[in-house]
Design goal:
By secondary structure, the protein is mainly alpha-helical. The chain contains eleven helices and five strands. It folds into three domains: 73 residues, Winged helix-like DNA-binding domain superfamily/Winged helix DNA-binding domain (Arc Repressor Mutant, subunit A); 46 residues, no CATH class; 80 residues, 3-Layer(aba) Sandwich (Rossmann fold). The strands form two sheets. The protein has a three-stranded parallel beta sheet with strand order 3-4-5, with helices on one face. It has a two-stranded antiparallel sheet with strand order 1-2.
Amino acid sequence: MTDTPTADAARILDIATGYMASKQLFHASRIGLFAAVADGSDTVSAIAVACGVSERIARLLADAMAAKGLLLRADGRYAVAPDAAAYLTGDDAAIDLAPFLTFLDEISYPHWLQFAHTVDTTQPGDLQMDDARWATFMAGVMTYNRLHAQEFGRHLDLSGATRALDFGGLSADFALSVMAQNPALHTTFVYAPGFEDGIVEAVAAAGLADRTAVEVADTATATPQGSTTPCSRTT
């Protein structure tokens, strides 16, 4: 006789109720809860004052973030967990994920609320984009790109390469991240007209202008040129 595994609904419930934690995170970020705790507002009353919310909401959000491990709670006081300190407090030393969380809350989440329509009709939902929503969209996407670029540069080994080509990518951060890890690497950025100023600014901000060249071309039709020197294309 074989044993029948005991059924457990926990995994299903975690998936089904995940949106609750997401919404709590979005609004904890929006009111500046993590930055407030990091700056010393470590009690419910202090968080409420710093974030401009009621003590009831301050406690609800702080406890919810503690339950998810993003805050640490002891004796009625809160502290920011290391990962939250790195990505949710606005610390200049790390990537601030707040713009990405705003994108998820204001653009992505409402779009997913239309998923029933998509299932029934195969038609996508309406993003209802205007200038303000496009700004939120791009800020979120570019923040997410920076996070991926950070990991890209950390894990991609180009120690034997001296030349790279970034051909028409959305963000220069991927190539710049790799360059930061490989001091011998020089990169040529080929971008469509209108994007070059942003690339030049990103290169200058990274302090890598001496190892880069920025060229303008119609990337939809241009053919990349170069020697047989090892190169990397980032998009």
